[in-house]
Amino acid sequence: MLPAITGRVCPQEDHCEGKCLMAKKVEPLGIGYLERFVADYEQRHLDIRNLPKATPTGKKVAIVGSGPSGLTAAGDLVQKGHKVRVFEALHELGGVLVYGIPEFRLPKQIIREQLDYMRAMGVEFETDVVVGRTVTISELMEEEGYDAVFIGTGAGLPQFMGIPGEHWNGVYSANEFLTRINLMHAYEFPKYDQPLVDFRGKNVAVIGGGNTALDAIRSALRLGAGKAFVIYRRSEAEMPARIEEVKHAKQEGIEFHMLTAPVEFLADSQGWLTAARCIKMELGEPDSSGRRRPVPLAGSEYELPLSVAVMAIGTTANPLIQSTTPGLKTNKRNYIEADSVTQRTSRKGVFAGGDIVTGGATVILAMGAGRRAAKSINDYLTSGEW
Fold it and tell me: What is the DSSP pairing of strand 273-286 with strand 260-267?
């Protein structure tokens, strides 16, 4: 499922291309580019009006969330003949694929084409449904007659550092920043009104070193930022972002302040961000992540003038579904507990996968969870055994 998407956004250097034997002597095969080409070719030549339909089983499955894990599960299950309906909280389908990844890296039209393909397969979609508020998991199963539910809501609750000044105007979470750009059409300004602080010609910084951080700062540059900075507390060798994304960011003129962390955000009398007070770091002993722990260097503080700061230091689980679903076990970080093979949860008939189980990870790992869940759901609906 979704090869046109994975061919564009997945970290091939860590997965398929990273295992390519040709890399022992030359460059690995461009598996990501090949995947993208094949998917785009199929999209141009496939007639989705006459797709074969599986024999109906009479079973109904609800998919909560239209991100990569939910879409993968939905696509696999509808091919088994089950009636599948995807519930999405936002007004546009695609989950993190549509609100969290910039247009220049994953065009919205690619996602819409994939959704049209799934509709032709028989998948039903319903937007503006906040499961846990509009309807609960229990109501879906007990009142609306769904035989199984897959939870693929992702981990969209932003994290902050807890330093002074994070409440000033001009300080965003990466989630809000990218969502405003993607779903409120900031990337089409001035055709659409600018849904962000007007930072054209001004300094913008992102705090963090992952792919989301680079997506945010590269977006800011395209929206007219005068200077764009990445502030990361470790060295480049420890950055979790894709090598390709770091390379592109440097080519575009983004400045990297490595071994640096903000300790306070400063503002003017009106509450608008004016600067970040930063401190230099050095690397100490490895921490629980296996990376060397950054240690502040006394006396190294300096101020970096800024108009916008974007916090991209990770996300955690939104607690809405967990708090409204009796019998659903979670871990100490409030992620849903699910078997790593079957994706079964502690509640009968309920499965979960993707970031809501693992925490923030990659599109391809979320898709893998969706595929495992679909197999397990089909086994459960076929056998009746839990």
Answer: antiparallel
- Burial class of residue 41 in the structure, from the number of CB atoms within 10 Å of its CB (0-12 exposed, 13-18 middle, 19+ buried): exposed
Provide the β-strand partners of residue 265: 276
Our count of domains for the chain comes to 2
Helices (H), the chain: 3-9, 31-45, 68-78, 96-99, 108-121, 137-142, 174-183, 211-222, 243-251, 320-323, 355-358, 363-383
**Torsions phi, psi for 168 (to 5 deg):** -65, 155
Contact 338, 370 (CB under 8 A): no
Residue 185 sits in a domain whose CATH number is 3.50.50.60
Q: Which residues pair with 266 in a beta bridge?
A: 275
Q: In the sheet where 148-151 sits, what is the strand order? A: 124-126, 83-87, 60-64, 148-151, 350-352
From residue 291, alpha-carbon distances to 69, 239, 281, 283, 288 in Å are: 28, 10, 14, 9, 8
Summarised one tens digit per residue, pLDDT across range 175-210 is 999 999 999 988 887 788 878 888 889 999 999 999
Side chain identity at 370, as an amino acid letter?
Answer: G
Q: Which two tokens stand for residue 326?
A: 């009796």
The pTM of this model reads 0.91
Instruction: Give the separation between CA 301 and CA 324, rounded to whole angstroms.
Output: 45
| Angle at which helices 174-183 and 211-222 cross, to 10° | 50
Give pLDDT tens digits for 19-67: 888 877 888 888 888 888 888 888 788 777 777 888 999 999 999 999 9
Q: Is residue 378 part of a domain?
A: yes
Determine, yes or no, domain membership for 152: yes
**Strand order, beta sheet including 171-173:** 171-173, 308-311, 203-207, 227-231, 255-257
Compute the chain's Rg from CA coordinates.
22
85 token code pair: 């309906």
Name the residue range of residue 145's domain: 47-156+317-383
pLDDT at 284 > cutoff 80: yes
Is residue 169 domain-shared with residue 225, that is, in the same domain?
yes
Average pLDDT, rounded, for the chain: 93
Q: Sign of torsion, CA 149 179 249 274? A: negative
- The residue length of the chain stands at 386
